[in-house]
Amino acid sequence: MNKCVPVKVWVADLTYTQQTIAADTMPAAVGGIATYLEKEIDLGEPVRIFKYPEKLAEALNDGEVPDIIGFSNYIWNFNLSYGFANVIKNKFPKTIVVFGGPNFPTDSLEQENLMRGHRAMDFYVIKEGEVAFTKLVQALIENDFNKEAVHGQLPSVFSIDSGDIFHPAETVERLTDITQVPSPYLAGKLDEFFDGKLLPIIQTNRGCPFTCTFCVEGVGSYGKVYH
Question: What is the pTM of this model?
Answer without folding.
Answer: 0.95
